[in-house]
Amino acid sequence: MIIAIDGPAGSGKSTVARYIADKLGFLYVNSGRVYRTVTFLCLEKDLSISEEAIFKSIPWNEISIHRDYIAVNLQQLSDELHHQRIDKLVPRISSFPMIRKAVNNIIVNTSKNENVVAEGRDMTTVVFPDADIKVYLDASIESRAMRRFNQGISDQTFEEIYKAIEERDQVDQKKAVGALRRSTDALYLDTSGLTIEQVCEKVIKSIQGHKTHQELL
């Protein structure tokens, strides 16, 4: 079974997807972590930030997705992926069509013969257009910026985070490939005034309504 969740940065995708995956015992797949891994490798290898250079230099077959981390060969990556340098560069790298195709291939291959909760910005429209359950989480920029600010994982001010999210939205919506957009058959939830528990409850109800998979809950 594939549960695909999309939405802009800070809409609650990661928290909700991880909760659902843990509850069902599914593999949690975060596409953003894969793009961050690619960006991390670009910085580590001091690569020229060009589509062709990155595509040729990244060891794609060594990148593997696990429940709580991404691995490159035997190196586990987690906290390293949230450096501010990566935050600034990942939107550009993730906009390259060849890179998106390579990352999507990793995600699809990982999900074969697996029950998966996959979240990102084009999971419901490009990567898993035939997903069993599709969800689109949304929220105002102000709400999303406040969530990021309250997480305390960035040294940026609220205003800086707000501006970064606003710019990220524009980049994601204008990508030539894999642009952020809402699938017409996805459950739409505006999470601005909802707690994570309330959002998860609504998603769980959607899964419960999927007649083929009611036995999962």
UniProtKB/TrEMBL annotation:
Keyword hit for ATP-binding: yes
Residues the entry annotates as binding ATP: G7, P8, A9, G10, S11, G12, K13, S14, T15
GO cellular component: cytosol
Domain Cytidylate kinase: 3-208
Molecular function per GO: ATP binding; CMP kinase activity; dCMP kinase activity
Keywords, ordered alphabetically: ATP-binding, Cytoplasm, Kinase, Nucleotide-binding, Transferase
UniProt record, GO biological process: nucleobase-containing small molecule interconversion; pyrimidine nucleotide metabolic process
Protein name according to UniProt: Cytidylate kinase
Protein's organism: Spirochaeta lutea
Designated gene of the protein: cmk
